[in-house]
């Protein structure tokens, strides 16, 4: 997803949330393709927390099923520390969930034990 499109999705989410279209427990799915896309989501959500509007919106669900999923493996922590720390903080605030495709994990021979506690999985 291009940066402009991702920003448009996040803007649309903000507009929908303020109109209370989403029921509690629903998600906005975002499929980032690059580290820049992930950082854009994280920076936007950090601004929501700073502005005390975090509880007004459904959580953003980052669905990772490509090379970006690798960034959230424990072995990748030294290279991705700031990204992982920021993501963990947002997960703790309940404004972000991270899910990795189990099919991608099997294909690349990674197990559930390699993921951080705040990272879940989906079948495909």
What topology does this entry show?
Layout: H1 3-18, E1 28-30, H2 35-50, E2 60-64, H3 77-93, E3 96-101, H4 102-107, E4 119-122
Parallel strand pairs: 1-2, 2-3, 3-4
Helix pairs in contact: 1-2, 2-3
Keywords for this entry:
124 residues; alpha/beta; 4 strands; 44% helix
Task: Please provide a written account of the structure.
The protein has 124 residues and is of the alpha/beta class. It has 4 helices and 4 strands, in the order αβαβαβαβ. Helix 2 (35-50) links the parallel strand 1 (28-30) and strand 2. Helix 1 packs parallel to helix 2 (35-50) and helix 2 (35-50) packs parallel to helix 3 (77-93). The longest helix has 17 residues, at 77-93. The radius of gyration is 14 Å and the shape is globular.
Give the uncertain stretches in residue-range form.
Answer: 14-25
SSE ordering: HEHEHEHE
Discrete helix count: 4
Summarize the main sheet: 4 strands, parallel
Compact description:
The protein is an alpha/beta fold and 124 residues long.
């Amino acid at each position: 997803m291009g940066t402009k499109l991702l920003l448009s999705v996040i803007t649309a989410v903000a507009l929908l949330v303020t109109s209370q279209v989403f029921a509690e427990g629903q998600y906005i799915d975002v499929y980032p393709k690059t580290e820049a896309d992930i950082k854009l989501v994280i920076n936007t959500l950090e601004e929501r927390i700073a502005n005390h509007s975090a509880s007004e919106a459904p959580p953003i669900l980052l669905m990772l099923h490509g090379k970006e999923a690798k960034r959230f493996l424990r072995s990748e922590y030294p290279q991705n520390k700031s990204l992982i720390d920021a993501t963990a903080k947002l997960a703790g605030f309940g404004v972000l969930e991270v899910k990795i495709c189990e099919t991608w994990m099997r294909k690349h021979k990674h197990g559930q034990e390699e993921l951080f506690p705040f990272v879940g999985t989906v079948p495909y």
